[in-house]
Design a protein that fits this description.
By secondary structure, chain A is of the alpha/beta class. Chain A has helices at 2-15, 32-37, 49-61, 80-88, 117-122, 135-147, 194-206, 224-233, 249-259, 283-289, 294-305; strands at 19-23, 42-44, 65-71, 94-99, 128-130, 152-156, 177-180, 185-190, 211-215, 218-220, 237-244, 267-272. In chain B, 40% of the residues lie in helices and 12% in strands. The chains are: A alpha/beta, B alpha/beta.
Chain lengths: 307, 277
């Protein structure tokens, strides 16, 4: 997905010379086309994420679109105050792109696992929070990100994620996409965990549990209508995210339900249970260890829904 | 009437005095702190706004304005004082500094006409100024970017990230002024995180550095009249200043960082400023 992101960005930047990339010495093998095509709009700040974000803010405040880009937590947590005070408070047109949300970097360890980012980014006023699940959403999302005027958080996948959507998508920022329909329960997910969720839904479907699946690619602003409709039309909601269980998509969905005084018959959040990942293994293996593989998701739901 | 070439010096000094008076009154009314940090940069602001920066009170956002970023946002009251004096907003706004329903918050705010950027947490101004300078250079615009920093600002790692980057990219449309009063929140900077030899450190980082008495308006003007100091290098002006300058019981004291003045102290401070003028 990161290769696709960079390719689409270069294509857009050819026609829009407001677009800059401000980096912090990350992106080897991916960012070179932007660097080589637009050398006067590409800067590597070195291992200096606070400066990267501040520079991006200054560039953006002069009428440009500045993209910061790095691995997992580097362009967010390390420079969070710059994102808050400089970017969000000034409504600067800065796009913060992380590569490898959740456990994507697997065996590299906790430093490279972005597992609180959604909660933190969505708490910031003026920030859009976007987590594409596959290439179709990723590509549409780059265009939406550039078209949007203001701070934008883009949680990009890091490898060749499988498609979640069977065909072309109707994409609109802030509107959920229905991947499949069903009346017994609704899965809501955000980001690349979507491929596991769809597999789990297919398994459960074969067992007689008809699952609706919604891709909540935009966590902020969140599609309230889709959530409330799912709560009313299906038997329960299951929120799955590659993120701590607190404060992310599950928390955001619960807020929508509580604010609307709508109580689904069942409500389940599946994510990391307030722990750092201490085990060593690949992305897929870690997902399974922490209950986020298709099989484990299906098992958890099967138990809860008594199927 | 013939024009006296030194009139501008007098006008600068008068403006610096007014900045101090406004700051003392505003912080007194608001029961707010940081007045020592405001007093130490009165001449710097006076010279900047009357002799250096191209800004227009009638059109604060005009595209060709010079960009001024106050990184030591806790001294924002002093910038409000200048902007009010120059007509960016009504001086009546001073009444509401740090008070309910006021327009002027304690740390500098871009919601105030004439203020380029909000700060308040140290170490934020220079990176943003660097970004503004980069963007100006690429757009072939000739306006300058000036960032005013404090001693405490120079502690922050982000400031050093930014100053290394600015030199790397030869941003000679960028000028940093440090209000080097050598006192920060909890004490003297030499006892907390010694910045010395600051000028030599900056020169070693490939900045063009000059040092000046930060209360001498003629010297400040002289230094800032030829920017950049060196083509192809960002300029850094170390201004040697006295925290709490102009008020005897505040000068060079740590307590005036957070302190404000009571009724009696306000009266004494204003008397001293008047006597010195």
């Amino acid at each position: 997905m990161r290769s696709l992101f960079n390719k689409v960005l270069v294509d857009i930047a050819k026609a829009d010379e407001r677009i800059w990339m401000i980096l912090a010495d990350i992106g080897y093998g991916e960012i070179e086309p932007f660097r080589d095509t637009f050398p006067d709009r590409w800067y590597n700040c070195g291992v200096a994420e606070q400066n990267m974000t501040g520079v991006a803010c200054g560039v953006a405040l002069e009428g440009n679109i500045a993209i910061t880009y790095s691995i997992a937590n580097f362009p967010t947590l390390r420079c969070l105050e710059q994102i808050r005070n400089d970017v969000c408070y000034h409504h600067a047109n800065v796009k913060i792109v992380i590569i490898g949300g959740g456990l994507a970097y697997g065996a590299l360890g906790v430093s490279h696992q972005a597992t609180e980012d959604i909660a933190i980014m969505r708490a910031l006023p003026n920030m859009v929070v976007f987590c594409p699940c596959d290439f179709a959403e990723a590509e549409a999302g780059v265009h939406a990100m550039i078209a949007h005027d203001g701070p934008f958080y883009y949680r990009c996948g890091y490898k060749k994620e499988p498609p979640v959507h069977a065909g072309p998508i109707e994409f609109q920022l802030g509107r959920a996409i229905r991947v499949r329909d069903g009346r017994d329960l609704t899965f809501l997910f955000t980001g690349t965990i979507g491929s596991q969720v769809v597999k789990a839904a297919e398994t459960l479907n074969r067992e007689g549990l008809a699952c609706r699946v919604l891709s909540m690619h935009t966590v902020k602003p969140l599609d309230r209508e889709a959530i409330l409709a799912a709560a009313e039309e299906t038997g329960g909601l299951v929120v799955v995210e590659e993120h701590q269980i607190s404060g992310g998509l599950g928390g955001a969905v619960a807020e929508v339900l509580a604010d609307a005084c709508v109580a689904p018959r069942r409500f389940l959040r599946i994510g990391l249970p307030d722990v750092y990942v201490s085990q060593v293994g690949s992305h897929e293996w870690l997902l399974d260890q922490y209950g986020l593989s298709a099989e484990k998701i299906a098992g958890t739901v099967r138990t809860m829904f008594g199927s | 009437m013939t024009s006296n070439p030194d009139d501008w010096v007098d006008r600068c000094r008068v403006l610096a005095r007014r900045i101090r008076e406004h700051c003392l009154r505003m912080t007194h009314r608001g029961h707010s702190g940081h007045v020592g940090s405001m007093l130490s940069m009165a001449e710097i602001l006076s010279v900047l706004y009357t002799r250096v920066l191209k800004v227009d009170p009638a059109d604060p956002r005009r595209p060709d304005r010079d960009r001024f970023v106050l990184s030591k946002g806790h001294g924002g009251c002093a910038v409000y004082a200048v902007l009010g004096e120059l007509g960016f907003f009504p001086k009546a706004w001073f009444e509401g500094y740090y008070r309910d329903k006021g327009r002027l918050m304690g740390h500098i705010s871009h919601h105030v006409p004439g203020v380029e950027f909000s700060t308040g947490s140290l170490g934020h101004g220079l990176p943003v100024a660097v970004g503004m300078a980069l963007a100006a250079r690429r757009a072939r615009r000739t306006h300058r970017v000036v960032c005013l920093m404090s001693d405490g600002d120079c502690d922050a790692g982000s400031s050093w990230e930014a100053l290394l980057f600015a030199a790397q990219h030869r941003l000679d449309n960028l000028t940093v002024i440090v209000d080097y009063n050598r006192i920060q929140a909890l004490g003297f900077s030499r006892d907390i995180l010694d910045l010395e030899p600051l000028a030599r450190k900056l020169a070693a980082c490939h900045w063009a550095v000059q040092e000046v008495d930060g209360h001498d308006v003629a010297a400040l003007d002289q230094a800032l009249s030829t920017l950049p100091f060196e083509p192809g290098q960002p300029s850094w002006l170390v201004c040697h200043t006295v925290k709490g300058k102009g008020v005897s019981f505040m000068e060079n004291t740590v307590s005036c960082h957070y302190g404000s003045v009571d009724d009696r102290q306000l009266a004494q401070a204003l008397r001293e400023l008047e006597a010195a003028s």
